[in-house]
Amino acid sequence: MGSTFGQLFRITTFGESHGGGVGVVIEGCPPRIEISDSEIQRELDRRRPGQSKITTQRQEEDRCEILSGVFEGKTLGTPIGILVRNKDARPEDYAAMAKTFRPSHADFTYEAKYGIRNWQGGGRASARETIGRVAAGAVARKILQTLYPKIDIVAYVAQIHELKAKIDRSKVKFGDADTNIVRCPDKAAAKRMISLIERTRADGDSLGGIVECLVRNAPPGLGEPVFDKLEADLAKAMLSLPATKGFEIGSGFSATRMRGSEHNDAFEMRGGKIRTSSNYSGGVQGGISNGEEIYFRVGFKPTATIAREQKTVTASREQTKLAARGRHDPCVLPRAVPMVEAMTALVLCDHALRQRAINISQK
Amino acid sequence: MGSTFGQLFRITTFGESHGGGVGVVIEGCPPRIEISDSEIQRELDRRRPGQSKITTQRQEEDRCEILSGVFEGKTLGTPIGILVRNKDARPEDYAAMAKTFRPSHADFTYEAKYGIRNWQGGGRASARETIGRVAAGAVARKILQTLYPKIDIVAYVAQIHELKAKIDRSKVKFGDADTNIVRCPDKAAAKRMISLIERTRADGDSLGGIVECLVRNAPPGLGEPVFDKLEADLAKAMLSLPATKGFEIGSGFSATRMRGSEHNDAFEMRGGKIRTSSNYSGGVQGGISNGEEIYFRVGFKPTATIAREQKTVTASREQTKLAARGRHDPCVLPRAVPMVEAMTALVLCDHALRQRAINISQK
Amino acid sequence: MGSTFGQLFRITTFGESHGGGVGVVIEGCPPRIEISDSEIQRELDRRRPGQSKITTQRQEEDRCEILSGVFEGKTLGTPIGILVRNKDARPEDYAAMAKTFRPSHADFTYEAKYGIRNWQGGGRASARETIGRVAAGAVARKILQTLYPKIDIVAYVAQIHELKAKIDRSKVKFGDADTNIVRCPDKAAAKRMISLIERTRADGDSLGGIVECLVRNAPPGLGEPVFDKLEADLAKAMLSLPATKGFEIGSGFSATRMRGSEHNDAFEMRGGKIRTSSNYSGGVQGGISNGEEIYFRVGFKPTATIAREQKTVTASREQTKLAARGRHDPCVLPRAVPMVEAMTALVLCDHALRQRAINISQK
Amino acid sequence: MGSTFGQLFRITTFGESHGGGVGVVIEGCPPRIEISDSEIQRELDRRRPGQSKITTQRQEEDRCEILSGVFEGKTLGTPIGILVRNKDARPEDYAAMAKTFRPSHADFTYEAKYGIRNWQGGGRASARETIGRVAAGAVARKILQTLYPKIDIVAYVAQIHELKAKIDRSKVKFGDADTNIVRCPDKAAAKRMISLIERTRADGDSLGGIVECLVRNAPPGLGEPVFDKLEADLAKAMLSLPATKGFEIGSGFSATRMRGSEHNDAFEMRGGKIRTSSNYSGGVQGGISNGEEIYFRVGFKPTATIAREQKTVTASREQTKLAARGRHDPCVLPRAVPMVEAMTALVLCDHALRQRAINISQK
Question: Is this prediction's pTM over 0.80?
Answer without folding.
Answer: yes
